[in-house]
Predict the structure.
Amino acid sequence: MKREGFEVATAADGDAALAQVAAFAPDLVLLDVMMPNKSGYEVCEILRADPARAGLRIVMLTAKGRETEVAKGIALGADAYVTKPFSTKDLVAQVKSLLG
Amino acid sequence: MNAKTRFALAVVMLGLLMTGPFLLTVGVLWADLGADERAGFLAAMDRWLPIGGLITIVALILGLQLLRALFRQYVQGLMAMAETLRLMLGANRNFRVTLDGPPEVQELARAANDLAQQRDALLGDVEAQIGEAKASVEAEKNRLAALMSELALGVVVCNLDGRILLYNNRARLQFVALAQGPTSMSGGALIGLGRSIFSILERAQVAHALENIRQRLQKGSAESVAHFITTTRTGQLLRAQMAPVLRTEAEGLAAGGDDCRITGYVLTIENITKSFEREAQRDQVLQQLTDGSRAALGNIRAAVENLIESPDMEPAFRERFLGVIDDETRRMSERLGKTMNDFADSLKTRWPLEDVLGIDVVAAAQRRIEDRLKLATKSESLDDALWIRADSFTLIQAMTFLASRLQDHYDIRELRFRLLAEGKMAFIDLIWSGTPVSSETLYTWELEPMHVAGEVSPLTLRDMAERHGGEIWYQRDKAAHRAYFRLVLPVADTPEVQHVESLPHARSESRPEYYDFDLFNFSDTRIDLDRKLTEVAYSVFDTETTGLEPSAGDEIIQIGAVRAINGRLLRQEVIDQIIDPRRPLKPEGIPIHGITEDMVRGQPTIDVVLPVFHEFCADTVLVAHNAAFDMRFLQLKQESTGLVFDQPVLDTLLLSAVIHPNQESHRLEAIAERLGINVIGRHTALGDAFVTGEVFLKMVPLLADMGIHTLREALAAAEQTYYARVKY
């Protein structure tokens, strides 16, 4: 990502992710579903519930690829859902297209 | 000699006995008297005779009157009482003797009435007991039938000859699914009361299982159940469990204490073809994943090793190895993705999920919520054709749990339900308006064991969702000021059940006739002309045709048939099929049979339908109204289909002529009216077959009154009638 010219901040769990979003104010969040403390779904919902972050893009990453999980991610407000394993090239392309 | 004459004779005899000695004495005295004495006596008599005569006449009249009164009261009175008693004995139990006549007779009448009173009380008692016993037997039967029909396993009960005495709806559905040919018809052909189970299961296998059970019973083993797996003619895999039906003590004694106590067996049948296939599929997935991944991993590993071992490799080689790694990883990703998509279902946990109709589950949940929580519910757009794979109990528990939480914490007044499908997913939404719930709340609830109204489940909402391979989330509909929980569940494959719901008669009566335990005593299935009409299985059928001249090219366009056995018409076991005659319909026929070109188009042809019908009729006697007509059509097809209908045929038209030779009309309507049968749905083949069947069943006892008991006798009697001469 950095190589592609993006500024990147990372977080190790759900709570840290929320703190990072507050501190760093990103344009886009890459959110893993399976995280300690708070799941990606929870973080996604909390971010979406905040009207100040209406423009924030959320891409969910997961190893679970079931149709029901994808449906849940989209329903909870994710802009895209990428299942592992994915190629970094594809992910970058996805991010670029979301950021327009 | 009637009572009056006897009484009169007795009176005369009595009179003679009483006056005889006196007259005899007078005669002897008279003969003994001399002439003077006689003259003196006559002179004396002359003076007193008129008075004496008068007195005698008056006394005689009085005597006669007295006799008459006595006769009336003691003879006629008693006879009348006897008649009344007879009436009380038979026709009218509540009748009582009127207290009339002299005290002695009245006393007798009172005693008779008391006796009658006592008898009535006893009879009433006995009747009440019989009624009670009957009701409890009936209730038990109904409970059994209800239990059977709702069981998720197919159950079939057979007697030792393999005749089916009972089957449940599940068994029927399973066999419908097994059937070859047009499925709407052939399910009935495979399973039916009185039919042989051996048309479905291998005779040898059933006999073997039975033998196992017998041996175990003889050894006194408590475990008297046999299991076997069998394939059907259509290649389906069935798992069967067989349990014996043992003769009760009383029956055993009646049967003379036979050492073998088995009178039949209960088969529980499960079609494991699907689960077997799923298992096989799972194996295949594993196989593909390991084999496929192994090759790819091997290539990647080789490339990586080469790259590590030769750091200063030529750029062209290096590029090639990197290309290999890139290719193989991409291919592995693709394979993984594809496997997930293709086999998602078979990789799911093996929680016992069942195919259920979505609206049924929702309705049950609504009932439970209203019942337990006193919370009003409503339905919004429910997809009534949506089948889901679910453990309905846990699912309903989950919905009730959510409702109770909402009610407790958010004080909601009404919960609405929505059911919709999207691809392979089904959504059940629980919607409420007013206070929104925070997302965290649902996450907390998701992890709590589900406690509802005193019921505790160790499972959580999350468990429920995971076991279904489903999801659950919370969404808000801000515009409508509403929020909902969405349960996502897998959609079921179109289940076997569906088309049977649309069978016209499957749901027509409240209690389907899926059992007849009297058939335990039915043994032989073969048709023997000397068997009683009451002991034969019948296929009553009717056809609709393009016209009335089979030999001039008219064709069958509809067959309706229903089975009858043991005096009952089995309205669940039917064939109702429209047939494409492959020729234009005659416009004049359409108003009669109501079948139009549109209806026959796309229907199977007679070559397909006739084998099914032939199987349906196997081992039964055919019954039709004006059978000669229908049989002619079947005969004309004999050559092209090779199917021969050589079983005996009874014709209700001819039998009617046997029973009521002096009636003018032997049309089906006229006979039905004479026999008091309601005619509905005439002029569809199945409707007419029903009427014909009912007519026939009413005719059997009437024929018996005429001394016609066996098939042979019925056929011979029918042959004698004038109508038997009509040829088509």
Helices of chain A lie at 14-24, 40-49, 67-75, 88-99. Strands of chain A lie at 28-32, 57-62, 80-83. The domain at 14-91 of chain A is CATH 3.40.50.2300 (Rossmann fold).
